[in-house]
Structures are given as structure tokens and as C-alpha cells.
Amino acid sequence: MALIEAFKRLLGDAAVLTRDADLAGLTEDWRGRFNAPALCAVLPANTEQVAAIVRLCAESGVPMLPQGGNTSLCGGATPADEGKRPVIVALRRMRRIRSIDPINNTMEVDAGCVLAEIHEAAAAAGRLYPVSLGAEGSCQIGGTIGTNAGGTGVLRYGNTRDNVLGLEVVLPDGSIWDGLSALRKNNTGYDLKHLFIGSEGTLGIVTGAVLKLHPLPTAEAVAWLAVDGPQKALDVLGLFQASCSSRLSAFELMNDNQIRLVLEQVPGRRCPVARIDGWHVLVELSDTGDAAALAATLQTVLERALDAGLISDAIVASSEAQRKAMWLVRHSVSEANKKAGVGLTSDTAVPVSAVPAFIEQAAAAVRALVPDLPMVVVGHMGDGNIHFIPFFTFEAWSAIEDRDVLAERIRRAIDDAAAALRGTFSAEHGIGRTLTGEMARYKPPVELALMRAVKQAFDPRGLFNPGRVLPPAASYLLRHPMQPSDKGRPET
Ligand code: FAD
After folding, report:
1. Nearest CA, atom 21, ligand 1
2. 289 Cβ partners below 8 Å, 6+ apart?
3. CB of 466 sitting under 6 A from ligand 1
4. Ligand 1 nearest-atom number relative to CA 65
5. How far is residue 148's CA from residue 198's CA, in Å, rounded to a whole number?
6. How far apart are CA 492 and CA 469, in angstroms?
7. Mutate to test the pocket of ligand 1, among 30, 46, 67 (most ligand atoms within 8 A of CB)
């Protein structure tokens, strides 16, 4: 095909993948739930090559799918079954740390840098890039920008959006926007970078970024707590926030079902406290000051929590190895759940104060549909972000006749419970292809119309990651048949 030949002339044969064996890891999503063919995958080495690829695709009217580490949990990074086969633009060869400015506390990087490599480069300069998540050994900074990734450091440092100062983006017409600003103040009109952050490759391909760095903590104190329930965990969070303020860097909640899955499925993991039943919290304090002082603060708050009857047990990590072992349990949940069965994962956020009510109401709503179904709960409680996961064994799941209908009803029950508390159905994973129906259901029509107008302005031909983020016209129009502002708008 002429387009593939043109790619080969541009990039060299080795950077154009067409064989099924070479494409296998790029066309199936991380959970193994979606798999559809691509026209090919191209591996550009620099921004100019990305721009040339986009121009070639645009000339041929072929859709493009930017891909980072392919760790999306909402089917955002792999081809769809319907429509024209896309070209996957995989940025894995673009992994240069372009520069680090320790005085300005910034680093400029290629979008294909793996997140863990960014952490290492920042640490080597005595700095911290604080976005941290279980997939950090595979996901790329461009993917985390595409999804506005959250993770375990949001409580103190914010999500990706809060840690990006500038972007370089290839636009759908093949032009390059150099927005690589390293400024902390820049009030010169619309802040375009925020449109690209979280747009999941539907508006442009991020090729470079200026990241905000922070002082590298010199002291970390970590503890694993056993609590009776989410309300007690919330009270403990309040104690920590009152006593530690911004030194509180993580507050992660898990229930016993989640811990059991990790212990069963991931070799080498062990529960830090003696009793698995009940609820678990991983709490971390970090600081640039004295380690002994931080450890003493942790101890004091834990004693107060024990005295108040808020926690039933607590283990403080007494070495770096213990600290890592505790975090490994937390970071193993996605792997464990994937191996153990079918979890209908939600990515809910509610106001932090509403987390206990959400868990209770979502559980009641799901049990009204499927009595006795085990619920797995894990989340970044300090941010109000809970992954509420009604969980089926593979056998139980395959015995259900109308799985899609049941999955939809369960998702609706959970999302309605969140919406009743003014929460959201997507806190950190994005929309991808799995949540476009929720967009149609929960997003106010005015907001959806504005999003469509933005998409139309950037990508009028709808060639960038089609079918993601925005709901298809049919479901949107079913819910909002009388929206005059949408009439005549081309579907994206
Ligand atoms: P991909 O999966 O390749 O792509 C994701 C989306 O971004 C797609 O829509 C893609 O088109 C777009 N995209 C990719 N690169 C670019 C680019 N250069 N320019 C424009 N668009 C682009 N997420 C969290 O937020 N918090 C967590 O705690 C968390 N934990 C996880 C744990 C595990 C084990 C796994 C597998 C995933 C987890 N995730 C989490 C989800 C996922 O890792 C993040 O969404 C991550 O940001 C995706 O990065 P990626 O490079 O793999 O992107």
C-alpha cells in the first residue's frame, strides 16, 4: 500500500510494523479485553517525523492512534473494531531527557520517556517528579499526559495536570505547536496545554513536555493500618491532615477482598498486619527534613488514632525494604485482579467526606442486582478516588448468559450512586472507549456541546483517535434529542 511505502521511506523499514507478530503487543489492551487490527504501527524517532506521519495520514484520510505504554485501563490506546483501520503512532523511540533545570525545578522530556525513567532522571538531579502509579515501569509520560493520570501522589502534589508546565504537540494538520514553556506564571490568554492534557490523543499527539519538579524528600515514614471500615479510615485521614498537613503524601484504602486477591495471585506479597479481615490503609508521610522527626510525628498520630479507637492495628515500616514491601502490595492490585477473574472496575471520585457513603450505597445497589457478589475496594482515599469492583471468578462470569447487559446494569448502579453524591464516573483513567456511554448519560448537554466544538476546531475530519472520549451521536441524541445547538454539527 502506498501509505506504508511512504512511511518506510520516511522512517526506514524497521520503524514500520505490519506483521501480526510485531503488532500483537500494540493491538491488544493491557487487560486483554479489546483486540482489533491496525493498518500498521509507526515508530517515529523525533517530533518532525511525527509531524510528517500525521501529514501523510491526513492526505490519505487514515485515522491515527497515538500510543504510549499501552497500559490504558479503558480501552483508549488500541484500535476499535469498527471504522477504518488506524495507524498506531507509538512513541517508544522518543525517550530523550532533553534537559533538567534544578534551579527552575523543571525538566524537558520526549513524550516517549517511560515514567520510571523520568523519576530516575529527576532523582539523579536531587528532584522529584511526583506522579507515581502501578504502571510506571511501562507507561510513558505522553500517555500520562494524554490521560491526566493520577496515582498515589495526588494528595500532596496533584495529578498530571498540576505537574505539567508546557507541551509540544503535533496537531491534526501536521503542524507543530511549540508550547514548551517553563514558566509558572503566564496569563496570556487561553491556556492551551490544559486542552491537550486528558484529551486522550483526540486533539493532538504530545511529543514533548516541560514537567514541574519538586524537592526530593529526604525522609519517608510509612505505616500499614487495620481499620474497621471506611468511616474509621476517614476519621484517621482527618487526624493525619490536621497533624501533618502537606507532609501527608499518600492515604490508600483497600478492603480484605483486595488483600486476599493480591496474596493469592502475586508471589512474594504478604499482608503487613496479622489480621486480613476488615479494612486496610497504607499511609505515607514525606518531608525534606529530619527522618527521625518525621518518624516521631507518624508515631504520635498513630497513638492518638489507637487511643481514639480508630485503628485496631498498625505496623510502621522500619526499613527501606519494609517500606517497599508495603508499597508492592498496593501496586500489585491491578495485576492480581487481572489474574484472578473479571472485576467490573469503577474509577469513581466523590468528595472525600462522601467516600464511606459511596461505598455503602454502591454495595447496596450492586447487591440488589446480584446478591452475595464479592466487592473488591481499593482507592486513593485521600483524593476521594475509589475503584469499586464487583468481582466474578472466571467460571462465574462465563456462566452468565447476558454478560454485557449485566455489566452495564452494574456499572450504572455504581455510577448512579456516585452521581447522587455529586461524584464522577472517571477520576483518573479517562474515558477511552469504555465510558463514552457514561459521557452521554452524565455530562451536561452544554458541556458536551462545548467539547464537540473543541474537537471540531482541532480535528474537523475526526482522524485523531476516533470513537474515544466523545459519545457517538446516536446515544447522545437519544438522551438530548432537542438540543438545537448540536444540529448540523458533524459527528466526531
Ligand atoms: P496508553 O495506554 O498508551 O494511552 C492512553 C491514552 O493516551 C490513549 O488514549 C492514547 O491514545 C493517549 N496517548 C498516549 N500517548 C500519547 C501522546 N504522546 N500524545 C497524545 N495522546 C497519547 N492510572 C492512573 O491514573 N492512576 C493509577 O494509579 C493507575 N494505575 C495503574 C496500574 C496498572 C497496573 C495499570 C496497567 C494501569 C494503571 N493506570 C493508572 C492506567 C494507566 O497506566 C494510565 O492511564 C497511564 O497514564 C497510561 O499511559 P500509557 O503510556 O500506557 O498510555
Report:
1. 201
2. 218, 219
3. no
4. 11
5. 5
6. 10
7. 67
Cα 227 from Cα 232, distance rounded (Å): 6
**How high is the pLDDT of residue 491?**
26
The pLDDT of residue 472 is 79
Asked if residue 412 lies in contact with residue 292, where contact means CB atoms within 8 angstroms, the answer is no
CB 415 within 8 A of CB 425: yes
Q: DSSP for 440-491?
A: HHHS-HHHHHHHHHHHHHH-TT--BSTTSSSPPHHHHHHH-TT-GGGTTPPP
The predicted model gives 314-332 an average pLDDT of 96
Cell of 397: 462470569
Rounded distance between C-alpha atoms, residue 480 and residue 470, angstroms: 14
pTM value is 0.92
**Confidence band for 33, pLDDT divided at 50, 70 and 90:** confident
With a 6 Å cutoff on the Cβ, whether 71 touches ligand 1 is yes
pLDDT on residue 419 = 97
Query: In whole numbers, what is the pLDDT of the chain averaged over residues?
Result: 94
- The single-letter DSSP state of residue 432 is T
Q: Could you give the dihedral angle defined by the CA atoms of residues 478, 479, 484 and 486, in that order, rounded to the nearest 10 degrees?
A: -80
CA–centroid distance, 128 to ligand 1, in Å, is 20
Does the C-beta of 140 come closer than 6 Å to ligand 1?
yes
Question: What's the pLDDT at 81?
Answer: 84
Report the C-alpha gap between 473 and 96 in whole angstroms.
40
pLDDT tens for each residue of 397-426: 999 999 999 999 999 999 999 999 999 999
Q: What is the DSSP letter of 123?
A: H
Question: Per residue in 149-176, pLDDT tens?
Answer: 999 999 999 999 999 999 999 999 999 9
Give the whole-angstrom CA distance, residue 259 versus residue 257.
6
Are 78 and 28 in contact by the 8 Å Cβ rule? The answer is yes
Q: Contact, 107 vs 118, CB < 8 A?
A: yes
- Cell 478492603, located at residue: 255
What's the gap in Å between 27 CA and the centre of ligand 1?
A: 15
pLDDT of 473: 66
Closest residue by CA, ligand 1 atom 53 = 143
Residue 11, amino acid: L
What's the rounded Cα separation, in Å, for the pair 105 and 124?
13
Handedness of CA 25, 29, 35, 41 (dihedral sign): negative
Pick the atom of ligand 1 nearest to 144's CA. 47
